[in-house]
Amino acid sequence: MPARPPIYMGQYDPANFRDESRKLVKADGQQVVKPGHEWSTSASETELRIAGSELTLTIPTIVATTVWDVKELIASRLGVAPDTMTFIAKQGCYWREKRDCEEIGKKVTIKGIKSFERSRTEYPHPIGIIGAGHIGLRQAMIFMKYKCYDFVIFDKKPKVGGQSWWDQANTTSKLQTETGVYHLGWDETLPIPKNDYPWPSRNELLDHFQEMAAEYGILPYCKMSTDVKDLIVEGRRELTTYELTLQKADDPTAKEERFMTSGVMLYPGNLSLPRRETYKGEEEFGGVIGYGMFDELKYSEVKGKNVAIIGHGAFAVENVRTCCEYDSGKIYLVCRRKNISCPRYVSWLANQSCSPLSAVTFLNAMKPMYDLVGFDVWEYYSIQSNAARSQCTIMQKARFGIGDIYFLAISWGKLEVIEDPLGIKRLGKGMLQCGSGRKLEVDCILKLLGFVGNPENDRLMKVKELVGFWVNDDPKRYIVAEPVSVMASNFGGTSFSPGAIAWSEYGMWFMHHPQDFWDKVMPTGMLPRHKADDSDEGSYRPAYVVDARHGTSTMVFIGAAIPFLSERGGTNTQIKVERMWAMHPIEKFIEYCKEDWNHYCEKFREEGLSGPEFPYSSEQAHKYLDVYRAENKAALTKAGAPEMLQFYEGLMPKR
Question: Which one of 50, 300, 318, 347 has the largest count of C-beta atoms within 10 Å of its C-beta?
Answer without folding.
Answer: 318
